[in-house]
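Reviewers asked in the last cycle whether our approach scales beyond single polypeptides. To address this, we selected a multi-component target totalling 293 residues and predicted its structure end to end. The input consisted of the following lines:
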Amino acid sequence: MVDEIFRWWPSVRQTRDELPWRSTRDPWLTLLAEMMLTQTQVARVAERFVVIAERFPTAEACAKAPLSEVLALWVGLGYNRRAVALHRTAVLICERHGGEVPCDLQSLLQLPGVGSYTARAVLAFSFDVQSAVVDTNVGRVLARAASGTQLRPREAQTLADELVPVGQVRDWNLAIMDFGHLVCRSRSPMCESCVLASSVCRWQQMRRSSKIEIPDPAVGSGGVSTRQPTFEGSDRQGRGRLVRAACLGPLPEDELCHIAGWPNEHERALRIADMLVVEGIMRRDANGCYQLA
DNA sequence: GATACGTGGTC
DNA sequence: TGACCACGTAT
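The resulting structure, written as structure tokens, was:
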């Protein structure tokens, strides 16, 4: 599988290398990019990454900035609690590691907002540590091509670790992610032109030798995300509106429900605002107004 | 292990 | 056009 994907990769590599975080191996910028990319599509992160990376070229620069500035830079990306985690992580990197991103898995996992994927991404992309990243794309490739069956997260990680070629950690992880994104896509995978289809891919083998349709092994598999409830009218939608509005100025308590888009649900808006306070995204000022923390 | 978490894009 | 999809971490 490794050889086939590496033979395919050059056809897309140049384009993919234009993504701004691919032109650096700086550990802090890699960590910043991966935290921004958490559950957020590449296309929407690209522009904003350039802005934030320029403002916070080091962990120290981020740690010294007020959280409200980090939040204001973040707004529009979604999952605003990641901005709080980023700021805390920057502070912790300064306190615990002298301002340098740690290069071991355990230390990285201690940082807020850094989980299995992000920690390994930093190791693989900026430290050349033997390590495999399993994001939704990689998880899908592994389930379909390497296994042919659903994988638990642990199994997916183990499989991924076994594949990493010595001395090509960064390139391999980028290549398999690109492959999952562009060829082994979630919907309508390009099996017709896939370099794995004729030989390696277990799912294709099963489909060829079976009369009935074989279900996609990537569905519900480890590392592949599950769907979520409707956004319209959800708490998340109201939260997003409150945080966005708070970037422009303090929010009086009695206006919260209108800003959240629920004119008749004052209680609900207040509950959401208080959740934002608990999460460290907002705070109540002396006037009882809500503003960015 | 189920659920919450934001926004923009596709069909 | 409204349901569906991409996209990891924390609890």
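Residues 14-126 of chain A form a domain with the Endonuclease III; domain 1 fold (CATH 1.10.340.30). We regard this as preliminary and will revisit it once experimental data from Aim 1 are available.
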